[in-house]
Structures are given as C-alpha cells and as structure tokens.
Design brief:
Chain lengths: ~110, ~110
C-alpha cells in the first residue's frame, strides 16, 4: 500500500461524457502528479500540483483539467470523452515538488469509454 | 526536447540468471534517477533510485549504476526469480522543471 488513494478504481462511460477522477496523496506529501497509461504503453505525464498550485504541465489535452484543493486532494476532470481516452490514470505524490523527489503511485483508475 | 531511451524493450532470462536494463538520458544536468517496477494491471512501484553524486547503489538483489559522463544508468537484478517478471521503467529528472521523464519500459520475463 503506497498511501496514495485513487477513486474510483473503475469507470465505464460513453463518448462525449465527462468524468472526475479523485486522488488523495500520502500523508505529508504536498505534491500530486497525474499520468495517463494507455494499453501496453508507457507513463505519459499530464500535470503536477504543489500545495494547491499548478507546477508543471505535460501533454495534457485542453479537454482535461485538474486542480488541487486546500486539503491537498486532487481531481482530474476529463470532458468530451473520446474512445482514445480509455486508459489507466495514475496519481502519484511526493513530499515536495522538485524533480529529484521519489514519487509514490496510487493504484490507478481504469477508464473505459464505450 | 529531453528524452530517456530504454533498452531492451523485452528481456527473457532463466531463473537464477542476471538481468540488466539500460537507460540513456539527454539532459546533462539530470540529478535523480528512479526505477519503477509495474506488475500487470498494478501501480508502478519505486524499487530503487540513485542521485548524481553516487555511482552505484545496491539493495539486496537489485543494484543501479550511473555513468554521468556517458549519461547512462543501468538496473541490475541478480539471481532472478519468477516474481521479478514485470515491466520496469527508468526515469530521469529534468533540470529546471519539477518533473521527470520516463523511459518506454522493459518487459522482463523470468523463465522457471
């Protein structure tokens, strides 16, 4: 158990819909990262938050957005869903926001678009 | 842009043999290099990491070596066991940013 909690574990929805994925970081961690992993693919960095503020952006689509709340949990919002958005979405957290910090991953949310 | 190349993409070894996975990075200022193991359908787990001020680090059957001059680092697994079968990802920090970049992964199969 990494201490990072992601909900829901599975999500099935249709094209055009909107979903929200939730992540609670490990106790004491201030930074949250979101990654997308398509079938048999690598980890694509989407976005990072540190103590409520956006810190870094990766290849995140305009249809996707995220935020980190005062209690440090984070939500990733995916809208106008397309078939290609089907993937595992991982959240990771670290103590601080630097690139030289270990990141600890949650169990992921498996999103299936029908 | 910055990138990390990882080789091989697949690796099969006999149980008890050693496995070596290599990564090459492009950012000469990278200073942190973690390795993750991901079993099928599960989360990536940090198994070992190394910082640029160290040339080698060991943890039981796992070791990582870093060659800053050549800008490459390697994961070594000795006395492999079937439970070592997984996908392994290397990563390197990107200087001037708050993130690191992952390699494309190596699928390791340990044959009993």
């Amino acid at each position: 158990d990494s201490g990072v909690t992601q909900t829901p574990k599975h999500l099935i929805t249709a094209t055009g819909q909107r979903v929200t994925l939730r992540c609670s970081p490990r106790s004491g961690d201030l930074s949250v990262y979101w990654y997308q992993q398509s079938l048999d693919q690598g980890l694509q960095f989407l976005i990072q938050y540190y103590n409520g503020e956006e810190r870094a952006k990766g290849n995140i689509l305009e249809r996707f957005s995220a935020q980190q709340f005062p209690d440090l949990h984070s939500e990733l919002n995916l809208s106008s869903l397309e078939l290609g958005d089907s993937a595992l979405y991982f959240c990771a957290s670290s103590v601080a926001g630097g690139s030289n910090q270990p990141q600890h991953f949650g169990d992921g949310t498996r999103l299936s678009i029908l | 842009g910055e990138n990390v190349e990882q080789h091989p993409s697949t690796l099969s070894v006999q149980e008890g043999d050693s496995a070596v996975i290599k990564c090459t990075y492009s950012d000469s200022a990278s200073n942190y290099f973690p390795w993750y193991k991901q079993e099928l359908g599960k989360r990536p787990q940090l198994i070992i990491d190394i910082r640029s001020n160290v040339g080698e680090k060991k943890d039981q059957r796992i070791a990582v070596t870093l060659n800053k001059t050549a800008k490459h680092f390697s994961l070594h697994i000795t006395e492999t066991q079937p439970e070592d079968s997984a996908v392994y990802f290397c990563a390197a920090s990107i200087s001037g940013t708050y993130k690191y970049i992952f390699g494309t992964g190596t699928r390791l199969k340990v044959l009993a």
